[in-house]
Structure prediction request, 220 residues.
Amino acid sequence: MSTHASHPEEPQIHESAQGPRVTPAASRTAQTPRPVPGPRPAAVPRPGRPGPAPAAATRAGSAPRPAPPVQRAAQATPVPVAPTAPSVSAAVPQVQLIPASAEGALDAAEEAVDLLLDTGRAPGDILVLTTGDPHPWAAHELSFGEAAYWAQHDARDDVFYADAAQAKRAADRPVVVFAANGGPADAVAGALPVALTRAGALLIVCGDAQQINSVLGADV
Prediction:
């Protein structure tokens, strides 16, 4: 789908009078989700990807940290982002749902982040939250201590990955990607409403459509 060169549109979802409702994509075979606009600095390496280590990731007097491997499913099918409709209120972020199992939610979140970066979002605009196993980048950086890890969050110069249970500690970012990839039974119900408040413009949720609609419909 084409997008105006100078004024690309944020994708949106249809919302009920009670608040935003998310609608799963009609098919996971669609190849080109609608882009989410935003400036993107040139040649900025992704967390966990090969490339020069960011300044915040290097301790004084030590060699740069090696980037951890990111486990990705081989030949994963691109996951479409659901088309959206204008939001009821400008104060409520747009919500997109990518249907996924708990096992596939993190891969779906990675696909969403790739799409956001490829369509112009700045890395520092994006916060990724996980309910189950942490993203490999987060696990790697936490091994150097909480202080260094959260310093990278405060620098806001790259994509930041965190446990959804710590969403209240995270600062607002224009885009939040929420991966419902397991964890405690009430993890999604407890963290998803907080993630919605952290998203300035767009919340992308990767998980079970029925569960996500139930949580957002009840709590937004």
Q: What stands out?
A: The first strand starts at residue 15 and ends at 16. DSSP finds five helices and seven strands in the chain. The chain has a mean pLDDT of 74.
